[in-house]
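# nightly structure sweep
# worker-07 picked up a monomer target from the shared queue
# config: single-sequence mode, recycle default, output format = structure tokens
# input follows
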Amino acid sequence: MKSDFYAAISQIAAERGIPKEAIVEVMEKALVTAYRRTLGNNPPPIEVSVKLDPQTGQARVFAEKQVVDEVLDDRFEIEFEEARRIKPDVEMGETVVVETTPNDFGRIAAQTAKQVILQGIKEVEREHIYGEYMDREGELVTATVQRVAKGNVILEMGKAEAILPPKEQVENDRYYHGQRLKVYLMEIRREDRGPRLIASRTHKQLILRLFEMEVPEIYNGTVEIKSIAREPGLRTKVAVAARQEGIDPVGSCVGMRGIRIQNIVNELNGEKIDVVQWSPDPKEFIANALSPAQVVEVQLRDEEHAATVIVPDKQLSLAIGKEGQNVRLAAKLTGWRIDIKSASALLDEERAAAEARDAAEAEALATEVALANAKVETRKVRADGTVVYQNRHYGPLGDDLIGETVQLRATPQKVYIYRDDRLVASYMIDDNEQEAEESEE
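# output follows
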């Protein structure tokens, strides 16, 4: 093999960004296979290795040979005296490693190298790409749109290609050849045809990486993103908190005159972003999450992990958002179910509840007065479990009361049945119905 051929290997390695050693290793393995072919059919299982000279590019073959008295096949055997020159303490029947480069092996090596370049370099390249990107999963990557095929956007990232599947594309985005955009490297799959890089423009982590890129305080950890809620292409809410006293987390993310947040919005093709202050107090956090709407009060229902939020009447539509988007994102951001009510609606509900409460109290008081003035009568429970009052049957009562004596008190609306001063049952008095609502205590 000529030295200029070895130079060509170096050039290929440089052009493709592959370590030269990786190509040489593949070629050496291929040359071993080529040499074994020269040994004929069914050669004995001997060790063979090929070394490429780093200076000249010449291929040298080394193979095991068995030490014998008389050589019958010089491909596999070596005389004892010759073997001793290689290994002085060799014994008869042992094997020694001998250089066995055929005279025409340069031609064979050249042909084999050509085949390796045509068939094997791509595999080396794929492995190198996998090794380069396997530790970059979860990173923000700048890519160039190469083409669109069957709904998939094929992206070029240096020496590698990535796929942006339809479900990872933002609906409002338009992709064209040569377009540069930032994507989230979501997954790296190792497949038979090589590594498969899956990118995303819809992932929530894309927002996190963009903020890390634009906001130094987030990158160095003095400001922390606590949670993200996103509807890709439409709107995103980001909750931030400061880890260091004296830092305004929201101001840090927005930047002077909004320049930082505007850069992120531009990268996302106009997607709206609300940056809100995180708080350990759920009430305060929920109120902040509904920004830009103003909140009057937040009422928590811990057992349901839900909150009722009161807003001024004029802020109701803003708090809910178009098609419920604002309150939906706020719920995702905080992890609480949120019900929005206007202040006037709450007043109406409270007024109706107070009226119902007053009416119930008045009715209860009237019932108490009526019972206090009612005449106590006794009755014996009939075999069918009923008692008779004003020629009407009420019941049935429990089987344990059949044959027992009970007391009756009646108001204009109900008849109350007692046993040993304990209320057993009550029935509505109705001219058309003999039985009505029953309550037992």
